[in-house]
Design brief:
mainly alpha; two-stranded antiparallel sheet; 7 helices; globular
């Protein structure tokens, strides 16, 4: 019950914000905040859905979803009127994402699973290729991971 309420509350604060003493506060306001909100809200939702809170799983999904959402910021770099991570970091943006991607997957190593390896490889490819093609990889990663799981089950 708490997970849907969490997502609704975060979505509202992100989109509309709150007015307090004549000032409006929005989660969307700062550089990288959107990426943190996406990573935090979804990783909390995933880990709160488990029987017990698992910090490595939370950390993995937070970093993974942060990176995935940041990849989408590349497409708007020329049109964005606000300061985004790609604008702030410039040519180092992809190095930053690659580092976070490696950290996320290194943290998940003790939960070793081939899907985590494919997740790392697909995300790394998405970071390094053209932004338009990267969206296809990021969007299709869950499907590709599920197919990998099915293939691995077929072969003992």
């Amino acid at each position: 019950m708490i997970v849907p309420l969490l997502l609704i509350a975060v979505g509202f604060l992100y989109s509309y914000g709150l007015k307090f003493k004549g000032r409006r506060f929005r989660l969307k306001a700062g550089c990288g905040v959107k990426n943190v909100v996406i990573g935090l809200s979804w990783s909390l939702s995933i880990t709160l859905s488990l029987e017990t809170f698992d910090f490595p799983i939370f950390s993995f999904y937070f970093l993974k979803l942060f990176v995935n959402s940041a990849i989408f910021d590349l497409k708007d770099i020329d049109r964005d009127e606000i300061l985004t991570l790609p604008k702030l970091l410039g040519k180092y943006f992809k190095v930053f994402l690659s580092f976070l991607n490696m950290v996320a997957h290194m943290m998940a190593l003790f939960h070793f699973h081939p899907v985590l390896i494919s997740s790392f490889v697909l995300t790394q490819i998405a970071i390094l290729i053209d932004e338009r093609k990267a969206r296809i990889i990021v969007d299709s990663e869950p499907t590709l991971s599920a197919l990998l799981c099915l293939l691995l089950r077929s072969y003992p």
